[in-house]
Amino acid sequence: MSTTPTTADQPQIGTARVKRGMAEQLKGGVIMDVVNAEQAKIAEDAGAVAVMALERVPADIRKDGGVARMSDPNMIEEIIEAVSIPVMAKSRIGHFVEAQVLQSLGVDYIDESEVLTPADEVNHSDKWAFTTPFVCGATNLGEALRRIAEGAAMIRSKGEAGTGNVVEAVRHLRQIKNEIAKLRGFDNNELFAAAKELRAPYELVKEVAELGKLPVVLFSAGGVATPADAALMRQLGAEGVFVGSGIFKSGDPAKRAAAIVKATTFFDDPKVIADASRNLGEAMVGINCDTLPETERYANRGW
Amino acid sequence: MSTPVIGVLALQGDVREHLVALAEADALARPVRRAEELAEVDALVIPGGESTTMSKLALLFGVMDPLRKRVADGMPVYGTCAGMIMLADRILDGREDQETVGGIDMTVRRNAFGRQNESFESGIAFQGLDDVPVHGVFIRAPWVEEVGSAVEVLAELPAADGPDSRVVAVRQGNLLATSFHPELTGDHRVHAYFVKMVEEHLAGA
To answer: Which of A12, A265, A266, A272 is the best residue to mutate to test the B interface, defined by the most B CB atoms within 10 Å of its own CB?
Structure first.
């Protein structure tokens, strides 16, 4: 990051620093999927740092099938009205017009999400073209860096949304962290080949090798259902968590939401996690990921 | 004089960036999540983040009251963005039940500059530093709507929509607050200013 302030700089909106900086403010927090204003308020009451406004949580998208699209603007606006915390919303992969609509509605972050049905099987949206920052999913480091090259200001490991099963979230986060650790050990000669192998811009690969982390905030998503799941993702190196179906598909959403917030902050304190895990009622039922057919794996969408 | 130990309230927010900035400004920096950890630091930074989340966790985990007591006893505290909200005696556009630590006699309006699309960065003159403006990064930022007589205004931004300017940095005694995030710029002069406040406080104590 540049350290030299210039004397004559005029206010500038939509800069990389402002977009990435927004995600820095969410760190250590929980971002919760909500489908209406009432759920958004429950999330805010529970201590969510932001809500993700969408028409159906991933578990229902799986159940209902069909094409999943951007939510109704009315519903997004109702949620924006209902809470004072940031509101995110999802566009389909490559559907930059949905993203334009979300920007015009004033959402604080756009999730170009594999949970919705992709609109383009080759191209993701050019995220530099927007004032609103984007978060994108990734299953590995190369994918994360390609999204950042396209302008993503925040990355979430994909996991497998709507399953209530944390196994894919763990796989993807470990993959990203392992690949970063490997880059740390490379010398300059090796970084060119690494960039080629990762199919990512050399400049970003070099930056990651130097920083030992992504140049943007890294959250985890896709399968977190319990306080211990959230704490696990934090201990594995996620800077915060997205919880989709896990909260509002459970027996007592308000209680579970508050418990996941506590466990996310005190992720390294088993006593706090134990207390947070007591009497939460039923967790969402969950799906075994190894029985999911390839075509129903959202993580395979995006490239 | 020994190096001051400065905590960063690590309930939620951009803790890491403040730890780095404080270390660069020659303080010993460490995260603080519990009352016991608070008792071991000479001063505290309340980072940027989501003020509703931070306030809720501070109450739930018993940090709010010990923090209020330390503030009343004169501990230096620096709050950025959400941290500024936490140091305000009065807030506007917060949640109805939102509690703050308080300490600075000011009214702060939450998200006053607007939503993320209105977030911006801008050069800004800062009283008490050299003549080079600091680079202010304002993210869904609050501003100070009104201050009491004991509060010193350190920085103001011209308002986009009229002749008034917006107060974005203040100091009252050992408490410092900015609407913006020096921790995101790599320019650690505001943190150095705070470290100096802490050193002066410790020397006088």
So the answer is: A265
